[in-house]
Specification:
three-stranded antiparallel β-sheet; 5 helices; 7 strands; 2 domains; alpha+beta
């Protein structure tokens, strides 16, 4: 009797268990957003893929942003925003919104993808190029990523500088947070990578 009673009890409670699990899954965030825009400067649209996930909209988000050119991933960045989540309550942390949920949704579901490509009024070309860090950060990156140095590194950086000066460079920046921009980068076709061009 006891065994049969337990089986009946389990069967009766199963719909509630499944329903609770369904509610849990409904609240879970697992979204993939995309934007097509030329970020490599070859005149063709590249695919930017933003994958967001969290236990719920009220939980800290984790995310990965990838850039795909002709089906090949050429850049990837990941972030866990546990330290940022509480800041969405602060006025002005995200522009043009009010409240935790509205500002959080605006940042993750709109601002990250929309603000990757910097407009020309968002950076100072001459200021970047006059900075000693322009050359040093580029050379350090090329040495570390690709074992490129000497005249080859100089040529890559010179080509990037030329594009920046004549206005043909596409500058991207992956945000660290709503109030902190990431390192500005320009795509170097010679190595198929985005190279940092400036660092504070």
């Amino acid at each position: 009797m006891t065994k049969h009673f337990l089986i009946i009890l389990l069967l009766l409670s199963l719909p509630n268990i499944l329903n609770a699990q369904s509610i849990k899954n409904v609240n879970k965030i697992d979204e993939v957003l995309t934007r097509n825009v030329d970020v490599t400067g070859n005149g063709k649209q590249d695919k930017i893929v933003l994958h967001l996930w969290a236990k719920s909209i009220n939980s800290p988000f984790s995310w990965t942003l990838s850039i795909v050119e002709d089906g090949k991933e050429i850049f990837s960045y990941s972030s866990n925003d546990s330290n940022e989540d509480k800041n969405f309550n602060d006025d002005g942390y995200v522009s043009d919104c009010r409240g935790y949920l509205e500002c959080k949704k605006k940042y993750y579901f709109h601002d990250i993808l929309e603000n990757i490509v910097l407009t020309k009024n968002q950076y100072n070309v001459e200021g970047m190029l006059k900075s000693p860090s322009h050359v040093s950060i580029g050379k350090t990156y090329l040495e570390k990523c690709c074992t490129i140095h000497g005249s080859k590194a100089d040529t890559i950086l010179m080509n990037m500088e030329k594009k920046l000066r004549n206005g043909t460079a596409i500058v991207i920046s992956i945000p660290v947070s709503p109030v902190m921009s990431g390192t500005p980068m320009v795509f170097a076709p010679e190595i198929g990578r985005f190279v940092p061009i400036y660092q504070d």
